[in-house]
């Protein structure tokens, strides 16, 4: 449909930092007009289809950085079709996909496959990342210029941290010359190798291999030093410890082009949730202390942490139904990102601030059009009820893999409808 009016909604504008009742007029896939609540819609739009939002929240669609879609090599874990359905049901309108697939996205051909496949199969927007080095081995940089021409929005080796600072500095220098964004995974690879949990009393009692939170700070400090040396645009994909925040704050104060993200799991869970070796809670980096979790929430509220993401990492039953130390890391999050984020709202983070981290800031960092509720912006929108309670059943998730740590938990926040370019791609039955 070329025109649609969404009436009686709570409009979230993350750029202006406002939440207000009103109406939204969509035309030709874009937001055409934003109207105040007291405007007589029936008189103004006599021949236009309308949808009464019933006073629920209407916000820009989520732009989720760091989604792993396992095509082509591990389609049994996740495909673009299932990831797209899960994303639409979770209010995600743009998936920023990771390159750590089989094969690695490190050539224009593999990137074009992912982009073409995602665009055809998934009902939303796909923004692919590419590897920083060939096969994520940390030895030889990829052909960044060709990959950017093919549509790469950023370059990252993910959790395969580049150990050789000379290789990383050369890659950053080249990225700087192209204006490319480099994403790092702050972690000292030597200290974190083989770790399953965060070091401390809990890890000792459970007898599990652990890593100090300082490993993250050490990895971040190294990356920031190289950023200062090269002038590259840099994004830390996941920070999770309070010890890392002063370094990030200093880098921003010094004027470095640096941003940082945090996963929803590190904002809503802590190390004690592992309990009796529950492998669905094994993620990378490992869950941290409650003090670290609270520090991350405060950093999101203050704007020090720029981005909140799902870090969607599907793992099949066989890779999770193992002893904790041997089980694969990762959790699905596309469909649970929004209701999990509502825990932050109920803890005091307001919706415009949260949506700045979920939608506006990712769009700005990656140079995407979305993330805004303003005239002329793409009509990528999510309509949701932030207070609707439910108990999560992992079997109802659309992802092929069901490895969510929120299984059986009481949650709040239901996505009612999702729109991409003004077209409805999900409607809750």
What's the topology here?
Blueprint: E1 3-13, E2 18-27, E3 30-36, H1 41-44, E4 50-52, E5 57-60, E6 62-67, H2 80-89, E7 92-97, H3 108-121, E8 125-128, H4 144-149, E9 155-156, H5 165-178, E10 181-184, H6 189-192, E11 197-198, H7 201-206, E12 210-211, H8 214-230, E13 233-236, H9 245-253, E14 258-263, H10 264-268, H11 290-302, E15 307-309, H12 317-320, H13 337-346, H14 351-366, E16 381-391, E17 410-420, E18 423-427
Parallel strand pairs: 1-4, 1-5, 6-7, 7-8, 9-10, 10-13, 11-12, 13-14, 14-15
Antiparallel strand pairs: 1-2, 2-3, 5-16, 16-17, 17-18
Helix pairs in contact: 5-8, 8-9
Describe, in plain words, how this protein is organized in 3D:
The protein has 14 helices and 18 strands. The strands form four sheets. Strands 1, 2, 3, 4, 5, 16, 17 and 18 form an eight-stranded mixed sheet that branches. 31% of the residues lie in helices and 24% in strands. Helix 5 (165-178) crosses helix 8 and helix 8 runs parallel beside helix 9. It has two domains: 3-58 and 379-427, Urease, subunit C, domain 1; 62-366, TIM Barrel (Alpha-Beta Barrel). Strand 13 (233-236), helix 9 (245-253) and strand 14 (258-263) form a beta-alpha-beta unit. With 429 residues, it is an alpha/beta fold. The longest helix is centred in the middle third of the chain and has 17 residues, at 214-230.
